[in-house]
Write a structure and sequence with these properties.
The complex is a heterodimer of chains A (627) and B (317). Chain A is of the alpha/beta class and 627 residues long. Helices cover 50% and strands 12% of the residues of chain A. Chain A contains 22 helices and twelve strands. Chain A has helices at 2-10, 12-30, 67-103, 105-120, 123-134, 138-165, 168-175, 180-216, 228-235, 244-271, 273-276, 345-352, 380-386, 408-419, 424-437, 443-446, 456-468, 486-503, 514-520, 538-543, 548-556, 618-626, and strands at residues 288-289, 303-314, 317-329, 334-339, 361-370, 373-374, 391-394, 474-478, 506-511, 523-528, 531-537, 610-611. In chain A, helix 9 (228-235) runs antiparallel to helix 10 (244-271). The longest helix of chain A is centred in the first third of the chain and has 37 residues, at 67-103. Chain B is globular. Chain B has a single domain (3-17, 25-106, 163-309), classed as Rossmann fold, CATH 3.40.50. With 317 residues, chain B is an alpha/beta fold. In chain B, strands 6-7-8-3-9-10-12-11 form an eight-stranded mixed beta sheet, sandwiched between helices. In chain B, strands 2-1-4-5 form a four-stranded antiparallel beta sheet. Classes of the chains: A alpha/beta (627), B alpha/beta (317). At the A-B interface, helix 4, helix 7, helix 8, helix 17 and helix 18 of A face helix 2, helix 3, helix 5, helix 6 and helix 7 of B. Bound molecules: adenosine-5'-triphosphate, iron/sulfur cluster (2 copies) and magnesium ion. Magnesium ion binds at residues 345-346, 478-479 of chain A.
């Protein structure tokens, strides 16, 4: 709640709206207590007094009634009617939406067709029709306004409810023996309340306006009762001679609707979870760089990541997602990067081409060199010309690189032509060749397919074809097979391996599966809590892990062919990277931890095999001595 | 050995292209008639690729989705398919996504109370005591009870999900990919916990996963599903080590194993459910396929001992 208010008031316009609305509401509530003239007391001798006239602060109207008094009473009435209409429309619409969304099927079909029919009528016509049937009067105007707004709420809430009704906790409630009524009340409704509140706060202004409109036409409040619309309507005839009689209620309507809408938009934004993470600002084209010193260039690898630090700065918290990570990749080599969720694998990969979202991401140190050229802090133009052409990405979800509404063929030719201005025909030919290269059967025909027409495995092949479009030297593959079935995974891995050999590609392969690393990668780096804890040739690391974490991680993953067995679990959880312990991040879970492990910085030591541990595993030590 | 769970020709079809009135345009089978036996205290592993009907089968078994045909028997008694509470007391479900299976707006205590109140009518002190007992069983601290789901890690949330399932005091637990959403180091913790609970509460498990190694590590017996049908069943140590069905062989070869060259890279995909092939569903990808395979659906039959396969030309052991 405190967070909600602080977010709300960070938005100046919303705060302004809230203040204005609060003043108006307070005035409306206090109206009966204020020393005002009676709103309906006529005095034809004092017609059309100008504002600031004696005893009538805002003047009088055509019957000599006090405008200030009528304004406040009218505001009171208009606000009450607007809120009531919003409440009725919100509740009725939500009820319909919840029912339709929850029960689905025929119930849903029938109600939603009905709602569609209501929505097909122009708004105000429908309201007029309802009032025409019911007869003029404020209550009928309220009903009309509420009814025309029900479809909006019903549609909105139905959409949200469908999403919730398919969530697993609803199934869980059913299994716990709850009936439909109880599930609706205790499981569904609490989850849609915020949506209803948002929808109401953003529409209440319009409902006030619509009621005023009906009153203006003489269909709402009846004389002598004042509401803002009828005041405007009555003042119409004196628009030129006594403009203040129109301006006074007009300004009030403007103020109310404006303040309500500003506040409503503010509430909507403040309840939006995306804004909570501090992503209020527009994302930058490349990750923000804020580093003090640049490590000197060394070695001549194809891609060298050197002491890279990438952080997420959210409020006061600093998440050290990537912490002094160094890796190097040689031409034609496959380097595996393995670690558990949140260990920083993806952020490492995204940092290479400045793809980490900023804010909140910041690269605070280190260098990434592509054949000696530092990419960190390179101008966006340089990065863009390299993205895809020298370094290409493959993501876990190929839909994140494929646009759902374009044919895959068009997307591929587009990708080719971004970096290479060849003719359409030439690009098309190359695109077909690429699809053949990634073993898509019937490639020429598939060029016309949309992404959703392909199976997951096919889509990932297209993702690979996209990555290959500009013949890159390096492919960074972030868990490209995690979402795929084993048989499809095997196909994709074999394909990548073959492409590596035939094209001399260097691959940085991110995964959490030791089996995959063992089959595909020449070398492997193990990450834990944002740091590399061990690297070395894959076979050696897997056979004799040096870091206790690596050893225990391997031990707790079941491997096919070992039969039924008890697994050697690692107790505890991986560390949160915004509160890393001093010393070794694995110490709280390490059975070999000693006092020395819990302070200072532990270095990554060794030559071809490096390990970040004060007491590496014996098997490894023994091996190292034999060499 | 008595049977805990028995299904007879359990099947589920979905209507495609529903119309407001009149019959649907087409029907697809998500689960073709499946007959399975699970013995008391046994863990039956179910593997198969996405879309093969694993979750549909599981949802039928717990009463979340009414079968189109077939029977479910629990401990020798046929289940009343209309009453979810009747299922609830005998058979419970642990969900794949631990966080989304907990209502974000309820405290853990409220979540835990629901099955105890609804299925067992517990109230007051008895309720409190039972929750404490369950929480202890899954190694969670009692102070977690007053927190909300988003405050928990995946592993903790899955323990809560398991505790909630146990609250119904079921005889059988259906575990639908219970560790797929978890980190590998946490996965092992949850698997070990499940093994302990099984002994402690004398449970029978149906363990569904796409991860062959995990299934092999936890199961007594394994059933392999392909395109809605059981294509092979057998003891866990034999199914992947000596597969009889060519599809099981393909699965086993595809699983990444350290020190084995990349393999199983055979192309081909699941058949189109709207237009299923007349014979064996695997014929399009099968190296042993014959004319017989393309014409006649193979029935599940005993190949040797307790290893069954639905194949006209099973592999030799
Ligand atoms: N956009 C973001 N805003 C804030 N924090 C983030 C963001 N992206 C990642 N992080 C944090 O950075 C850390 C490293 O995340 P990263 O995505 O690199 O992990 P990973 O190793 O790729 O995990 P996974 O196996 O789940 O893909 C995590 O603590 C994560 O919460
Ligand atoms: S440094 Fe110490 S605590 Fe860390 S892994 Fe090595 S032995 Fe364990
Ligand atoms: S029945 Fe025929 S096609 Fe099907 S798996 Fe057996 S051999 Fe292959
Ligand atoms: Mg990742």
């Amino acid at each position: 709640m405190k967070l909600f208010l602080s977010l709300l008031f960070r938005n100046r316009l919303a705060a302004f709206g809230a203040v204005v609305l609060a003043i108006i509401v307070i005035l409306a509530v206090l109206t009966p207590l204020l020393p005002l003239h009676p709103p309906n007391a006529t005095n034809t001798a004092n017609r059309y007094l100008r504002p600031l006239a004696d005893g009538h602060l805002l003047g009088t109207d055509h019957l000599g009634r006090d405008l200030l008094s009528r304004l406040l009473w009218g505001t009171r009435l208009s606000l009450a009617v607007g809120f009531a209409a919003a409440l009725i429309a919100g509740l009725a619409g939500a009820a319909i939406g919840v029912m339709a969304g929850y029960f689905g099927g025929r119930t849903d079909n029938v109600t939603m067709r009905g709602i569609d029919m209501l929505m097909a009528f122009p708004y105000i016509l429908l309201a007029l029709a309802i009032v025409a049937v019911l007869g003029p009067g404020l209550l009928n105007a309220l009903i009309a306004v509420a009814v025309v707004n029900i479809p909006f709420f019903a549609r909105n809430i139905r959409g949200v409810t469908v999403g919730i009704a398919h969530r697993e906790f609803i199934d869980a409630a059913r299994l716990a023996g709850m009936g439909h009524a109880r599930i609706l009340l205790t499981e569904v409704v609490p989850n849609i309340v915020p949506v209803v509140v948002i929808a109401m706060s953003t529409t209440i202004g319009w409902m006030i306006l619509e009621t005023a409109g009906l009153s203006f036409l003489g269909l709402g409040s009846q004389p002598p009762q004042a509401d803002l619309g009828s005041m405007l309507g009555e003042a119409r005839s004196a628009l030129i001679t006594a403009p203040h009689t129109s301006i006074v209620p007009g300004v009030m309507i403007l103020l109310i609707v404006m303040s309500v809408n500003l506040l409503g938009d503010g509430i909507r934004d403040a309840l939006d979870p995306r804004l909570r993470s501090g992503a209020l600002a527009r994302p930058m084209a490349a990750t923000r760089v804020d580093r003090r010193d640049v490590p000197p260039a060394q070695g001549d690898g194809l891609l060298t990541i050197d002491a890279l630090d990438t952080q997420f700065q959210i409020g006061k918290r600093i998440y050290k997602a990537v912490n002094q990570v160094s890796l190097d990749l040689r031409p034609g080599e496959c380097l595996g990067l393995i670690g558990e969720s949140g260990s920083g694998k993806s952020v490492t990969a995204l940092s290479v081409m400045g793809l980490v979202a900023s804010p909140p991401g910041v690269i605070t140190g280190g260098a990434v060199r592509l054949e000696g050229q530092d990419l960190i802090g390179a101008p966006y133009e340089v990065l863009r010309s390299l993205r895809g052409r020298r370094v290409a990405y493959i993501f876990q979800d190929p839909l994140s690189t494929l646009h759902p509404l374009y044919r895959i063929g068009d997307q591929l030719t587009e990708a080719i032509r971004v970096h290479d201005p060849v003719s359409h025909a030439e690009a098309h030919k190359r695109a077909v060749k690429l699809l053949e290269d990634v073993r898509i059967p019937n490639a020429a025909a598939r060029m016309c397919a949309y992404p959703h027409e392909l199976s997951g495995g096919m889509r990932q092949r297209v993702g690979i074809a996209m990555a290959l479009a500009n013949d890159p030297d390096i492919i960074i593959a972030d868990e490209p097979t995690t979402a795929l079935d084993v048989t499809v995974q095997a196909q994709i891995l074999a394909l990548l391996d073959e492409l590596r050999q035939s094209r001399g590609l260097a691959i940085l392969f991110i995964t959490h599966d030791f089996g995959v690393v063992g089959q595909l990668c020449d070398r492997v780096a193990v990450m834990y809590g944002g740091r590399i804890v061990e690297t070395g040739p894959t076979a050696e690391v897997l056979a004799a892990p040096a870091h206790p974490y690596t050893r225990r991680l391997i031990a707790c993953v079941p491997e096919l062919g070992q039969g039924q067995r008890v697994l050697a679990a690692i107790p505890g959880l991986p560390p949160a990277v915004d509160q890393l312990p001093d010393g070794c991040a694995f110490a709280p879970r390490c059975e070999k931890a000693r006092a020395a492990c819990k302070s200072g910085e532990i270095a990554l030591t060794g030559a071809t095999r490096k390990v970040r541990c004060l007491y590496p595993e014996e098997a490894h030590v023994a091996r190292a001595e034999n060499h | 050995m008595s049977l805990a769970l028995k299904t007879t020709d359990l099947a589920k079809s979905f209507d495609i292209g529903k119309r407001l009135f009149g019959p649907p345009r087409a029907q697809v089978y998500a689960v073709r008639p499946v007959s399975l036996d699970v013995a008391q205290g046994e863990t039956l592993g179910i593997v198969g690729e996405s879309g093969c009907g694993k979750s549909t089968l599981a949802r039928m078994l717990v009463g979340l989705s009414p079968p189109s045909a077939g029977e479910i028997e629990i401990e020798g008694r046929a289940l009343d398919r209309a009453d979810p509470a009747a299922f609830g007391r005998l058979i419970q479900y642990v969900f794949q996504d631990p966080v989304s299976s907990l209502n974000p707006r309820k405290t853990i205590r409220q979540i835990m109370e629901a099955p105890l109140r609804q299925l067992h009518g517990m109230r007051g002190a008895a309720l409190e005591a039972r929750i404490a007992e369950l929480f202890d069983a899954v190694n969670l601290r009692p102070e977690f009870l007053d927190r909300y789901p988003h405050e928990f890690s995946g592993g903790q949330a899955q323990r809560i999900g398991i505790a909630r399932a146990l609250a119904a005091s079921p005889r059988i637990l259906i575990l639908d990919e219970p560790v797929s959403a978890l980190d590998v180091s946490v996965q092992a913790q949850v698997l070990n916990l499940l093994a302990d609970l099984k002994v402690e509460f004398n449970l029978t498990y149906l363990f569904i996963s796409h991860d062959l190694a995990v299934v092999e590590a936890v199961s007594d017996r394994i059933a392999v599903l392909y395109f809605g049908s059981v294509v092979e069943t057998g003891p866990a140590e034999k199914v992947f080590a000596a597969p009889r069905h060519p599809y099981t062989k393909l699965l086993a070869d595809s699983a990444p194993v350290v020190g084995r060259p990349l393999g199983g890279a055979q192309s081909g995909e699941l058949p189109d459910p709207l237009n299923p092939p007349p014979g064996c569903a695997f014929a399009g990808r099968c190296p042993r396929a014959s004319a017989l395979c393309r014409a006649e659906v193979p029935r599940l039959r005993a190949i040797e001992g307790d290893q069954f396969a639905a194949c006209h030309h099973p592999r030799d052991a």
